[in-house]
Amino acid sequence: AFFQPKELPLKGKKVVITAGPTRERIDPVRFLTNFSSGKMGYALAEAANKLGAETILVSGPVSLPIPSGVTVEHVESAEGMLQAVLHHFDDADIVVKTAAVADYRPKYVHEQKMKKQAGDATLELERTTDILMTLGQKKTHQLLIGFAAETNDVEMYAKGKLAKKNADYIVANDVTREDSGFGTDTNTVVLIGKDNFEHHFDNMSKKQLATKLFETILAHEEDLQY
Ligand code: CTP
Ligand code: CA
């Protein structure tokens, strides 16, 4: 079997997890970002390590303690995160893209602090690279798990992202719930997989959920083997 069905089911496996927001610079003192706290990604890294994996955590700027036994690589921008993940991709067994990657960055990064002008201003933006989609196109043996932050039609959009990005699973998150999503200690998610696989989790702490997500995915992968 691909995974060892024991207490350390991820022993001998390399797991790469991305967490937190990215920062996209405007000038030396300003950037674009989002409200991601990194808690879900850090909880997943802690869980992967406890389940026996060699765990690499590629982290955007957050203020959380580093889980013991986990190797952290700090990145700032979407481009920095892409490079760090690609560096580890070939020998990774599982990649979990928990990070809230910026979809856009300023088209021009000003070398000096921008001065205000009379009246309104506009900021020109360009798209960042979709890291999950890039990995979905490149993957050979890797199990690819994405997240989806949605405010409406959660499962429909998550299924769309699963297919479009060639991921194996999407963890879909209703970010309008007060007990879920950005910044909270708890989360309510639906795990979506191929062939209409769907597993609904009750609201629980992100730490508890992290372990349950790995256990549920590993159990389903085992089922698929036979
Ligand atoms: N993602 C990524 N690179 C990006 C944007 C998103 O790897 N540049 C990943 C996220 O880490 C997440 C998944 O794609 O695992 C879905 O992110 P989400 O923001 O929900 O979806 P998008 O595809 O960006 O679509 P939209 O924001 O328009 O809903
Ligand atoms: Ca997005």
Automatic annotation (TrEMBL):
Region (Phosphopantothenate--cysteine ligase): 15-226
Binding site for CTP: 103, 113, 147, 161, 165
Domain DNA/pantothenate metabolism flavoprotein C-terminal residues, every copy: 10-218
One GO CC term, this protein: phosphopantothenoylcysteine decarboxylase complex
Superkingdom of origin organism: Bacteria
One GO-annotated biological process of the protein: coenzyme A biosynthetic process
Function: Catalyzes two sequential steps in the biosynthesis of coenzyme A. In the first step cysteine is conjugated to 4'-phosphopantothenate to form 4-phosphopantothenoylcysteine. In the second step the latter compound is decarboxylated to form 4'-phosphopantotheine. Catalyzes two steps in the biosynthesis of coenzyme A. In the first step cysteine is conjugated to 4'-phosphopantothenate to form 4-phosphopantothenoylcysteine, in the latter compound is decarboxylated to form 4'-phosphopantotheine.
Protein name: Coenzyme A biosynthesis bifunctional protein CoaBC
Lineage: Bacteria, Bacillati, Bacillota, Bacilli, Bacillales
Gene: coaBC
Span within the parent record: 177 to 402 of 404
